[in-house]
TrEMBL record:
<dbReference type="InterPro" id="IPR029062">
    <property type="entry name" value="Class_I_gatase-like"/>
</dbReference>
<protein>
    <submittedName>
        <fullName>DJ-1/PfpI family protein</fullName>
    </submittedName>
</protein>
<feature type="domain" description="DJ-1/PfpI">
    <location>
        <begin position="21"/>
        <end position="185"/>
    </location>
</feature>
<dbReference type="InterPro" id="IPR002818">
    <property type="entry name" value="DJ-1/PfpI"/>
</dbReference>
<dbReference type="Pfam" id="PF01965">
    <property type="entry name" value="DJ-1_PfpI"/>
</dbReference>
<dbReference type="InterPro" id="IPR050325">
    <property type="entry name" value="Prot/Nucl_acid_deglycase"/>
</dbReference>
Amino acid sequence: MLRIVFYFSYSNRKGNCSDEKVLFFVYDEYADFQIGHLLFFLKKLGKMKVDVASLHGKEVVSLGGLKVCAANRLQEAKMDEYDLFLIPGGDGVHSLLKQKILHDKLLEAYEKNILIAAMCGSVICLAEAELLNQKAFTCNELTFNQFQDIFIQGNYTGKSIETSTSGIITAKGTAFALFTIAVLENLKLLQNDNQREHIRAFCKGEA
């Protein structure tokens, strides 16, 4: 209990008036369970605003059956306003292949040094946008084997998570805790090892 009180009493580096924003990209059958913990901590710890966008700015239905209202069309997103571009994996990731607007926005985010975080199958989109060329990355082995022709320019490690110095985080679809911690660390929202351990335990149901 003391650890929980300590954690939630922490103030983020910008206080309660953070101007930082997340662009959370969703699509039909995205894996809602993969990013639940991360979204919670981005709001609770970082006080960050989360803008939800889809390709067409319409409602999508997640893998878990949640109806999510995407208030923004991805094409209209002003990347200068964001600090994080977050893309979950999911069974519907195949619908994102060959989507030029998504590739363009990923490239724009990369060029503007906006953190890009992708899990599981959504890592394919980064490969198609040629953001993984000569970089270490990871995703589920099944995904890698199925799309080796797309991943050919990257260096697949098979680790649970990979964080590049160029501002790209990739993770396997079950690395919830590691993904959450890596993103929070890159956004400089973590203060010490006690926080990291609490978040790890929280995500694993051990808190």
